[in-house]
Amino acid sequence: MLQIKDIRKQYHTGDLVQQALDGVSLEFRDNEFVAILGPSGSGKTTLLNIIGGLDRYDTGDLIINGVSTKKYKDRDWDAYRNHSIGFVFQSYNLITHQSILANVELALTLSGVPRSERRERATKMLDKVGLGNQIHKKPNQLSGGQMQRVAIARALVNDPDILLADEPTGALDTQTGIQVMELLKEVAEDRLVIMVTHNPELAEQYATRIIRVKDGRLLSDSRPLTEAERAQCAAEV
């Protein structure tokens, strides 16, 4: 189980101090589709980046399967990002001069997977997201929705416990966005998916839980863990 305890994060620009997160505490189930909603500057992307180990919290704690990250060193964060987390971004972050197969293989290269296995796993994952017949195309030969599916395949190829998606439909038209949301909903059947979005309609239609934040604080949580769920998770750790 993933737990956030009283997380605080500030950013300093000269004399200006921005309180990005101000005492946020949350617990997540091992498989659910969580949407984090909030206006620009509310802290939702900072929260996502801290969960993913891309940014460090100032105080509080991020607890992964009962283990505190307070004493994590760089190598611990690297291992966490490479093996436990998959990232999907609004801008896709694909390498344009490489094939989509090579883009997906790259995630496996960083994890030290042998070359022969990399190709097989990447091909299977691209097939799973509906792009198995286009593996040799470059990203600029694909539509926005197809590129986002490549990004999802790359995020999933290491079989991470958690998929983090930052505005995954932000650059897509409505119909393509729905296709991507359907895919994320399917992914969330057997792992934790946390998505940041500005789109409350999509969140309400697809997510199983909606968390709203504003000014770095938690406003509401549509489906917090019950005491029984907390007790069960504590027993499993």
Keywords:
237 residues; six-stranded mixed beta sheet; single chain; 37% helix; four-stranded antiparallel beta sheet; alpha/beta
Brief characterization of the structure:
This protein has 237 residues and is an alpha/beta fold.
Write structural notes for this entry.
- There is one protein chain.
- The longest helix has 14 residues, at 115-128.
- The protein has helices at 44-51, 74-83, 100-110, 115-128, 144-156, 174-187, 200-206, 227-236, and strands at 2-13, 16-28, 32-37, 59-64, 67-68, 85-89, 162-166, 192-197, 209-214, 217-221.
- The termini are close together.
- Strand 9 (209-214) and strand 10 (217-221) form a beta hairpin.
- The protein contains 8 helices and 10 strands.
- The model has no long low-confidence stretch (mean pLDDT 94).
- The strands form 2 sheets. Strands 6-7-8-3-9-10 form a 6-stranded mixed sheet, sandwiched between helices.
- It is an alpha/beta fold.
